Input
Amino acid sequence: MSGEKNTEAQIIAAAKKIFMQKGLAGARMQDIADEAGINKAMLHYYYRSKDKLFEIIFNEAADNVFRVLSAILQSDMPFREMIAAIIDNYIDNLIKNPYLPVFVLNEIHQNPERIVSRFTKSGNSPDIQAFMDKVNKAQKKKQIRSIQPLQLLLNIVSMCIFPFAARPLIQTVSGASDQQWKELMEERKALVTEFILRALEP
Amino acid sequence: MSGEKNTEAQIIAAAKKIFMQKGLAGARMQDIADEAGINKAMLHYYYRSKDKLFEIIFNEAADNVFRVLSAILQSDMPFREMIAAIIDNYIDNLIKNPYLPVFVLNEIHQNPERIVSRFTKSGNSPDIQAFMDKVNKAQKKKQIRSIQPLQLLLNIVSMCIFPFAARPLIQTVSGASDQQWKELMEERKALVTEFILRALEP
DNA sequence: GTCTATAGCTGGATAGAC
DNA sequence: GTCTATCCAGCTATAGAC
Output
């Protein structure tokens, strides 16, 4: 009875780290056990199988991706503030979770059904319709020029997420140190917001 | 002597398909053999090991990613045309190679040294400096407003590549069919170009 | 060159002692 | 609950016949 809750949490933390870095196929139960400072048998004792353990980690990660969007879409800030909030929150979140994009993108790609079911399961799926309504409303009011809402949303999340997915490549190409990388991403918060708002000027 | 050159090419084509979809860790030599219509032993006869075969496929894919950029960066078109050309070529290329982004991103992430060595090996590494010079020159001429060139480049490639990396998620969220997806991406060529040029207006 | 058979190893999962 | 030992499936790689 010594570990129990504690061991459980340690396993989740270790699994998160390993799965995020190596993906489902690349991760080894032994890696996770080592990371958690226990042995393989315990993993099965608590979480039955590799797949079950993975599912927990993946769902948590997928929810994380959605949550950032949906929280903001549900609020009713003015259009420009909403854009700024989406970008600020995404980039902040990704600075804290650098492996998230590649992990989620890769596993979705390997098994698309996973994300479909997670999205349908509602709870915190982002309300895309609400976003579209807001864009259309801002257009009617002549606050922004005409643009297809889905394409705008793609532009926003692309500019937020992609640099993190391509980080090793970007650091190689640009020769940026880890410190410079962080500064570059911090700069992006204001820069991307301004970039988008300028592009939308009527 | 029957197959020879032909068999070799068949193996590469099959390996490309399987590795692109499943990645290094997820792919099985048996999958590749099945796809090529031969048996496992042949793979080793021609390419020695799984790692060697993978390296060939990965290098080809990485070069592809770089080539799109470097060809345009080497030409000396006017600034606005260069932007349009980068976007057109990237999106066209990705419509033809939908698995490319996730594959390259994921494998770079698993083993960053791979891309570093590929980039250093020159040949067709994109000339980032040339891009930066062009942006600075356009700024001096007051053709565009002030922006850090690297950030601009990130914005451009992000908007081109990310949607393809996130395709299953986007189709789920938006409910787009495969046909609608293709139309959406075709639309993006003009849309992203206009979006960027508007954001850069002085 | 191409195939079948199999060696040799890795890794997920379980049995059973404590 | 936790550990050690072990089973067994699946995989890469090779040996050897044709």
